[in-house]
Design a protein that fits this description.
The chain has 92 residues and is α+β, with helices and mostly antiparallel strands. It has 3 helices and 5 strands, in the order αββαβββα. The strands form 2 sheets. It has a 3-stranded antiparallel beta sheet with strand order 3-4-5. A two-stranded antiparallel ribbon has the order 1-2.
């Protein structure tokens, strides 16, 4: 479990740096009546979700976090003796 926590933290730290860079460059960008900085820094009574999940590509099909389903089947960890990847593997 500790290894999973360390991998998750490393990924979160990396994404945190990406968000800081986005805010530095585009933090004053207005989205409707809301700035990007407001979205990332408190939401201030608004309902929203920022996520990086999937893309439906007309050529490649579904891509999840920039990977095809076949790529994920090969790359993600499987349970001992299992043939399909563990859903939790997406967080590593």
């Amino acid at each position: 479990m500790e290894m999973l926590k360390q991998k998750f933290k490393a990924q979160a730290d990396k994404l945190g740096e990406e968000i800081k860079a986005i805010l530095k460059e585009h933090g004053d960008t207005v989205i409707g009546q809301t700035t990007l900085a407001q979205v990332y820094q408190g939401m201030r009574g608004m309902t929203a979700l920022i996520t990086e999940t999937s893309l439906l590509d007309a050529q490649d099909g579904i891509r999840f976090r920039r990977h095809s389903i076949d790529e994920l089947r090969d790359k993600l960890p499987k349970a001992n003796g299992g043939s399909e990847p563990l859903p939790e593997g997406l967080f590593t």
